[in-house]
Write a structure and sequence with these properties.
The protein is mainly beta. About 5% of the residues lie in helices and about 40% in strands.
């Protein structure tokens, strides 16, 4: 059964077949409490909470899948281990910290006439995010800008190739811009925003071919996928001993997010 979940070095990811429905995703944000002598409590917390995915496989019997998971758990995979959720990649691959920066003056702000959502602050000038892309898959990067038509608002760069300018489209005022990417092989996409007039960034993976789940004029929050993970040794449950001598077993594998999405 296809799951849309992929694991491995981003140049050699394999789809995780046999994953059961209802995958829990937990998030733990480290905190520290300090209580003053006067009795006041202060709580410090990390800026983000790393995620964990608990994947259940049933039945546990695909030799190739077992080999990949065991190699990742034992740390014998060449390079970092990445986890890709295709459903999330069709929403917005970019990390939330990059796609929706907010000012501290308001938690809601005014309503954006283009999106119908609460207005987001512009991305910081010079902001850079790096995302791994698979080969043979189409991607689309979109956003909103108020820059003058023809102004270079940023660049995209695939691996060691030359950077390609992203320019503000024709028109005036706040408007959408869009650019597509079609890497022939697995590579890294570097997105750099060079002006202070860009917001609502969104990077999505095509559903198939050049067909995307939504129009280029739709914004959805960042999901931070793919991301680097640690694979915890599989926990197995023996369900049945067969007369053939083979055992029927299920397994649960936990993936722990490491590093920060958007940073390679």
């Amino acid at each position: 059964m296809k799951s849309g979940l992929w694991l491995g070095p981003y140049g050699g990811m394999v789809e995780l077949d046999g994953v059961q429905a209802a995958v829990p995703v937990s998030q733990a944000r480290p905190t520290r409490e300090v209580v003053s002598l006067a009795g006041s409590r202060f709580v410090q917390r990390a800026r983000r909470g790393p995620r964990e995915w608990a994947l259940t496989f049933a039945p546990w019997g695909a030799p190739g899948l077992i080999a990949v998971l065991q190699a990742a758990a034992q740390g014998i995979v060449n390079g970092d281990v990445w986890f890709l959720d295709e459903a999330a990649a069709r929403v917005n691959m970019l990390p939330p910290e990059f796609t929706a920066p907010r000012t501290m003056s308001s938690t809601a702000g005014s309503i954006d006439s283009l999106t119908g959502l609460p207005s987001l602050a512009n991305v910081t000038t010079g902001q850079v995010v790096v995302m791994p892309l698979r080969g043979g898959v189409n991607y689309r990067l979109t956003g909103i800008t108020t820059s003058t038509s023809g102004t270079t608002i940023g660049t995209t760069k695939l691996g060691a190739a030359s950077a390609v300018n992203v320019v503000a489209p024709a028109g005036s005022g706040a408007r959408w811009w869009s650019t597509t990417l079609a890497p022939g092989s697995a590579t890294e996409l570097t997105v750099t925003i060079s002006v202070s007039t860009v917001r609502n960034l969104r990077l999505v993976q095509a559903v198939t071919g050049t067909t995307y789940a939504d129009a280029a004029t739709v914004w959805l929050p960042g999901q931070g996928t793919p991301c680097k993970v640690q694979v915890v040794d599989p926990e197995r449950t023996l369900q049945q001993i067969l007369t053939s001598g083979h055992g029927r077993q299920d397994a649960t594998v936990t993936l722990r997010e490491v590093g920060i999405p958007g940073v390679i």
